[in-house]
Design a protein that fits this description.
- The chain is mainly alpha-helical and about 350 residues long.
- Among the domains are: about 120 residues; about 110 residues, 2-Layer Sandwich (TolA/TonB C-terminal domain).
- Helices cover about 60% and strands about 10% of the residues.
- The protein contains ten helices and seven strands.
- Strand 2 and strand 3 form a beta hairpin.
- Helix 4 runs antiparallel to helix 5 and helix 5 packs parallel to helix 7.
Length: about 350
Amino acid sequence: MHTRYRIESRAGVRGRANTTLIAVIVLVVLLGVGAWLLIIRPHQESLLTDSAGHPALSTSAAKAAAAAPPANVAAMGVDELLAEGRKALNERRYLGPAGNSAFEFYLRVLETQPGNRVATDALRETFPLAATSAEQAINSRDFTDAQRQIDLLAKADPTNYTLTILRSKLDAQRKMLDKQQQQELEQQKAQLAATQKAAVEKQAADRLAQQQAQQAATQPKVTPPRAAPAPQTQVAATVPAANAAVGTAGGAGGATSDAVLTRAVQPAYPPIALRSRQSGWVIVSFTVDAEGRTTDIAVVDSKPHRVFDNAATDAVRRYRFTPAMSNGVAVASKRQQKIEFNL
């Protein structure tokens, strides 16, 4: 009987203990649910509302980003700065515009009141969203503002590895932009050089065409070769005398005659004289050999001196004659020719 009582007593104690444990567990669960509903959930909903639609800003947020900063920020108290920071978060102004961003308000709070829990938590929780904003500034190549935003992030959390990534991206984008600008500059220089070269070549072609047209229109006037020009009188007189002597010695076995020009060549008008509109003449002496070709060509006189000499001698060199005959045999003979150059 006594033993059964002790067993029932122990069972009652265990029952009361189990009831107490259950009550404690229920109380803890209720406290957790209350904390979730009253504290954690509203805070998370607020953060989700702040981050909705990132990384791109909505039209209303973009308009809010252009809002002017509140007047006299330096004179604001902690509560006012926290209120402005909260407003900036709601409008997604994490890092910009300059002077009116959430990070600047919260960092100002920490300068005034180091260790402020609200500002510290807000900076920590919104750091990823703010880093996304800085990345957008880098991608849009707004390098000055991107550097400003990275500096704000560094003040909030200087050891965060995200800063290293953002700085690397900023440096890479700057180098890429410099390279593109250098390539564009080189292309512009190449195009300019090609244009200048084409212009120079066109001018040279135009000048050459003009010179050729002038030369074709103003061919030099060459005096036709004469059978016995005045300077050649003495030579012409001695040659028949010699031939006559030969004819006397050899009898009348063949004909005797002077060389006869069969092909005359017009000399080329020197370009220098053509440009300066010069005229002149050259007296050339030469020998017509037994085959009718000209040899021993020399300038006897010219005016102006040496201007037309080469042109005259080149032309005479291409003359062809029927050679002089002595008693029916072709012989060499000396001649002189005056070539005139007139425009």
